[in-house]
């Protein structure tokens, strides 16, 4: 995967999959089989539709075809990776070794050639999700005067060690995976509270307030955990424009 930050994933049997293919019969049939095996499946028949789905919620794995009109799979993979380091599995009729190697090197976790055996595809999906399920940043992440180590559920704040709750760790890991871009409240609810049946935006607001109390020198004037004017939150080493995005308002 590109980038140094990974994503916290739900259990393999409950993972959210985004399927992207302009072959509607194949798309529907594969979605039905995967849903029958316990996955939460979202479908998109074009690159634009796939990007719209990303605006609503992050999947745990994107499975995409390469040969699509308007925006092909490789272009879509690049757009996805520019937003967040989401794992991608390519499912394509293109069999050239160079194409496979290039995609795996730059974008994809795996490459499955059509026609394929469903049992093999399912095994590859589960293997990717098992590998990534508990992955959050292992290395320390320095943000100016604080250092985050979400996997150990701790931060060092101006030389002082601060414990993080599992929810706070997942929250920070999700923001770190998208740096420097912001993450919407809806995306945070899906990724951090994936197991909750009635996740509420108040969960996000409370977690942000609690983290600012732990991490910021002045929680009312944050420079690391920033609110985006258009909605959502992002992490920053320091706010380059003190008057922009640094408000502690929800």
Q: Count the strands?
A: 11
Q: Rg to the nearest angstrom?
A: 19 Å
Shape: elongated
Beta-strand proportion = 15-25%
Q: What structural class do helix, strand and pairing data support?
A: alpha/beta
Structural domain tally: 2
How far the N terminus sits from the C terminus, by CA atoms, comes to 32 Å
Low-confidence stretches: 1-13, 239-250
Task: Describe what you observe in this structure.
This protein has a 5-stranded parallel sheet, with helices on both faces. The chain has 2 domains: 12-132, Response regulator (Rossmann fold, 3-Layer(aba) Sandwich), CATH 3.40.50; 141-235, Arc Repressor Mutant, subunit A (Orthogonal Bundle), CATH 1.10.10.10. It is elongated and about 55 Å long. Strand 1, helix 1 (24-36) and strand 2 form a beta-alpha-beta unit. The protein is an alpha/beta fold and 250 residues long. Helix 2 runs parallel beside helix 3 (73-83). The chain has helices spanning 24-36, 47-56, 73-83, 97-106, 118-132, 166-178, 185-192, 201-215, and strands at residues 16-20, 40-44, 61-64, 88-92, 110-113, 141-143, 146-149, 154-157, 160-163, 225-227, 233-235. The protein has 8 helices and 11 strands. The longest helix has 15 residues, at 118-132.
């Amino acid at each position: 995967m590109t980038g140094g930050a990974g994503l916290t994933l739900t259990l393999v049997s409950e993972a959210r999959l985004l399927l992207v293919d302009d072959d509607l019969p194949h798309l529907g049939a594969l979605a039905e089989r995967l849903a029958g095996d316990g996955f939460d499946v979202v479908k998109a028949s074009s690159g634009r539709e796939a990007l719209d789905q990303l605006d609503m919620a992050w999947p745990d794995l994107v499975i995409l075809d390469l040969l699509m009109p308007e925006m092909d799979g490789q272009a879509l993979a690049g757009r996805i990776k520019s937003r967040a380091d989401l794992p991608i599995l390519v499912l394509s009729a293109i069999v050239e070794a160079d194409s496979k190697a290039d995609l795996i090197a730059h974008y994809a976790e795996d490459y499955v050639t059509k026609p394929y055996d469903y049992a093999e595809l399912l095994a590859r999906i589960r293997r990717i999700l098992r590998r990534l399920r508990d992955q959050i940043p292992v290395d320390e992440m320095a943000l100016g005067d604080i250092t985050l180590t979400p996997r150990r559920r701790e931060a060092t704040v101006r030389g002082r060690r601060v414990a993080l709750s599992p929810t706070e760790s997942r929250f920070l890991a999700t923001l770190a995976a998208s740096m420097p871009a912001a993450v919407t409240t809806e995306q945070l609810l899906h990724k951090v509270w994936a197991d909750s049946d009635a996740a509420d935006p108040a969960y996000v607001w409370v977690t942000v307030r609690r983290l600012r109390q732990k991490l910021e020198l002045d929680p009312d004037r944050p420079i690391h955990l920033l609110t985006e004017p258009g909605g959502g939150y992002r992490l920053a080493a320091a706010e380059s424009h003190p008057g922009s995005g640094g408000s502690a308002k929800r």
